[in-house]
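Comment thread on ticket #2218

A.B. wrote:
> Attaching the input chain for the structure job we discussed in standup.
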Amino acid sequence: MEKIYRHILCIDLKSFFASVECVDRGLNAFTTPLVVANTNQGNGAITLAVSPYLKAQGISGRTRLYQIPKHISYKKVPPRMKRYIEMSKKVVEIYLSFVSQEDLHIYSIDECFLDVTHYLNYYKKSDYELAETILHEVEEKTGLTATCGIGPNMLLAKLSMDIEAKKYKNGIAKWTYDDVPEKLWPITPLSKVWGIGLRMEKRLNNLGITSIYELAHYDKHKLKAKFGVLGEELWLHANGIDNSIISDFKHQPKEKSFSHSQVLMRDYMNEEVLLVIEEMAGILTRRLRAEAQECLVVGFGISYSKVVGGGFYHSLKLDQPTDDTSKIYAICLSIFDKFYEENMPIRKVSISLGKLSRKVGRQLDLFSSIETQESQDKMMQAIDEIHERFGKNSLLKTTSLLSHSTIRDRNQKIGGHHE
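C.D. wrote:
> Ran it. Output below, let me know if you need it in another format.
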């Protein structure tokens, strides 16, 4: 596959929440033991951030207070999301003084991608020199320290930042396609690489794949047969290939879609939310089948609890339209694995199905059986007919009896909206 060659910077503000708290107090984040955590939750509270000083002591940015060794004393401060958003906007304004809005992608409150391809001649700098200038400007104007990865695409820029930039005093690392065999392929475990969560790591391990090298050299067609469009993306990423560009993430005109969002009655943590995601995918696919529609794009998002703030929303285009619950659930899981921050409290889940088309038949791939697919379609149709005739709670999975299931209560209400 053809590779793109651009100059992408991925910039991350180090220990952002904790660093903001240190800056506002006139403290040095690299010499101050400071923890950001909800002071009302006692010793069991999860830290939202720890200062670089504590990270150097081996303290994770996401840990419970009682897990911090007793011999380490630290200052505990409550989170101030409004202040963090203010500082994030200030940093983004600095980025926009170097590039236009079209060449900036805000990935999270503390991380951004900049495409500087068309600015190097203007500034008469290399991408590395421009990264140094931008990081210096951020520190000079905000007091915050950042790391930066540089690459020919968004993936390699992100990986060089995640894996290597922190090793250097100036916090900058650059990877090219030539670096893939030496720097990317040896990585193990797989979950150290952006985009591969623990569940996907286990599934790949079951195939005998334990390193990125083994993933890069696995049969691409078998991966696609096993994981669908995600399998092909895994293979491409393992080879350092990512042809997405920042404009792909810009707002697209709204079109007809099915969407469903749910505000949870309490905080859900980690894998506890997976059942809710599966149930929501089931609700949406029943609506698809009721109107004989299929979708080509799946969007999935998480909003964290107000005390934390933030979240994410991303979409993925499929290789062919579907109304299959399991396939849509698998896509949502892959996005969840890629972007969810461990131990963050979840309060809202959103799923949308776009690029709708009338279901007129099914194109099977080489690895699918017509009999198997027809049997699956008939089963889903039968379940839909039972729900239509006897009510949505007439036939449920045994998992709906679990305490973190929301499907029974949700079925008694009007959920989602049709745009």
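A.B. wrote:
> Thanks. Noting for the ticket: The first helix runs from residue 16 to 24.
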